[in-house]
Amino acid sequence: MRNRLTTTILLLFITVASQAQMRKWTLQECVEYAVDNNLTVERFELDLENAKIDKSDALGNLIPNLNGTSSVSSNTGFSINPTNNLPTNQTALNVNLGLSSSLTLFDGLRNIRQLNRAKINAIANQYRLDDLKDDIRLNVANAYLQVLSNKEQLKTFRAQYAVTEQDLKRTKELVESGVLPRGDLLEIEATAANQEQQIVNGESLVLISRVNLAQLLQITDYENFDIADEEFDIPPSDILSNSAKVIFDKALSFRNDIKLSKSNVELAEEDLKISKGGYLPTLSAFFQYGTRYSDVTQIPDANGVPFTPNFTDQLWIFDGISYGAQLNVPIFNGWNTRNNVKRSKISLAQAKIQFEQDKLDLESTIQQAYVDVGTFEKAYEAAQKTLEARRLAYDYAKERYDVGLMNAFDFSQAQARVDNAEADVIRTKYDYIFRLKILEFYFGIPISLN
After folding, report:
1. More confident site: 17 or 392
2. Predicted model pTM
3. Topology classification of domain 24-63+107-280+330-442
């Protein structure tokens, strides 16, 4: 009984492990996993955390600071008595306590500008992170569709080889019976060998595309990584009912790369304001409280007799406060402020130029994507028509071949043309799907093959 239980648990474990190894990934799972586990995403997330800390630093500069100090010292030999500032040669124990605070009242609004800059920088880092995730989604979708395309082509190669095997078997029988010459058999065998090579190449392409997709997901177990065995038709879409200009205008409103570029302009504007603040005076306020104790302290009592007060009494007797304000007016600092303002103006001009360039690049990309959708749609339709024509030609050739009116070489050529046409249909199909998804992505439609 115990052995049976152990065997059952072991078999269950093996079954679960096998199912885990044979997991088939959907596109949505691949996209989510890639976004969640990408190392660059993790690095950008840390940059975002740093930006949030910078915002906290800037906020802290607007509130007063508070510092406490304390010191304990013992002097032996010549020293100055802290109570009367007279020389003494006694061993003395001295304790000093203090509390200080300061606040910048005005610094050319630089602290406020720093806070505004830190807020914008945190938002910019979020845009940068989201833009990276968008790029990952597109790259994963492209790699996923490439695996699908290669798998469908491989299925086609194997189906074609199965048909050729039947033709080869039938041709052998006809050659052996003397109906067909041996040259026809050799031609069919050559066709079969060529198709076997296509299958080998197709398997290699599937493996390479799977590895490429796994690398995007940063999965190293290539042997056990595979995608779901699905076939996708051209998804319905009315994206072309919108003009390229409409798609571009909408993309400007939500694309993270454009938002990032615009944030960089805002950051440069804040940097310029911060630099100009260096021309203005700085006003700060301060407050200090201090007290002390010394065991050599001597003060007279009510009868004029000197005595040493205890620790607590001395803290109350010798405490004191100071407070005030300080104004610093910049007069000349070696043109540092002026040069910083000039640099900030240049950086602002560069950020504005980059922003305009990014918009032009986006418009160009969308225009190209728009044209690509129409071009690849026509290419797919043309490939389908070609395949239909090749199949009709193949059926006609097969009829002639079966009755001995066509030699094996011409028949193999007709079959090869069908093979090429089927491969073109698969290739143009997934090329069209991907271009369609790219254009929809720029219109704000999430990537999905459904």
Report:
1. 392
2. 0.79
3. Outer membrane efflux proteins (OEP) (1.20.1600)
